[in-house]
Specification:
7-stranded mixed beta sheet, globular, about 20% strand, single chain, alpha/beta
Length: about 270
């Protein structure tokens, strides 16, 4: 008996679909942490933006304001960490990598610090609380909305303009003016946590304008995820730094490998 081609195609379609099930399950299992991150960082954010009419950073500030003690940096960081791990995802450095940053600051004991990317002030507070008496932190944030929130968080933590100066402008416009406008001769410590594509050009600007001295330390977050491949390639080839990567996991996540780069400037040989 002759059976039409459509009969065979109907029989084959379920079989083909079933053949893809193991592959689909394998992909879901392998990339499950990335799916969770996408849900927390993107889908939840879009939904809550629509429902609340507030930005994610504004929602974080409201939580910190009502769940922390003014003038207590540790309390403010703890409130941030809870909100970012249990409520919504924000890409702060977080507590695990934060402890590495704390240790490096303690070892370096810097007097002049530059932060590239204040975002909503978490890392700014974390750095400021570790600084010795008389030290000064210059924090650059290009987004005006985020900078306004960072300013509130910094002052809520008890740090005044003498300790932390927030500069609202793109980093590539500020770095060339640090010497002339802010009387900076040399930076002891630089923390990078802004756009990853800016890591390399901003590092080269710091070199070009002579803002790094022998022994200056640069710490760059998220060099493995989302990643800063051009920045890492430059470090391997330029010969200006002793450097290493502190491996960790992505902040407020499990199963996503990340790392922080630690650089010590050796100068031109």
């Amino acid at each position: 008996m002759y059976l039409p081609f459509s009969f065979y195609s109907k029989m084959a379609s379920p079989a083909i679909a079933l053949a893809f099930v193991p592959l689909l399950l394998t992909l879901i299992i392998r990339y499950r942490y990335y799916f969770v991150l996408f849900y927390r960082a993107v889908l939840v954010r879009i939904w809550k933006d629509c429902v609340t009419g507030l930005s994610r950073e504004e929602r974080a500030f409201q939580y910190v304001l009502t769940n922390s003690t003014p003038g207590d940096p540790d309390s403010i960081l703890d409130a941030f960490d809870y909100w970012c791990s249990k409520v919504e995802f924000i890409s702060n450095i977080g507590p695990k990598k934060g402890k590495i940053l704390d240790r490096l600051l303690m070892e370096q004991n810097p007097l002049t610090v530059l932060e590239l990317g204040a975002h909503c002030g978490y890392s700014t507070v974390r750095i400021a609380r570790a600084l010795p008496l008389g030290a000064r932190l210059y924090s650059i944030e290009m987004d005006q909305g985020n900078a306004a929130i960072a300013e509130k968080i910094i002052r809520l933590a008890g740090f005044d303009d003498d300790t932390v100066e927030l500069i609202v402008n793109p980093s590539d416009e500020v770095i060339p003016r640090l010497r002339s406008d802010y009387n900076l001769d040399k930076l002891d410590f630089v923390f990078m946590d802004h756009w990853k594509k800016c890591y390399l050009p901003d590092l080269q600007l710091l070199e070009e304008y002579g803002l790094l001295g022998k022994g200056s330390m640069i710490v760059a977050d998220n060099v493995l995820f989302p990643g800063a491949p051009k920045f890492l390639r430059y470090l391997r080839k330029c010969g200006l730094y002793e450097w290493k990567i502190h491996r960790a996991t992505l902040e407020y996540s499990r199963g996503i490998r990340d790392g922080m780069a630690e650089l010590i400037y050796q100068g031109i040989k």
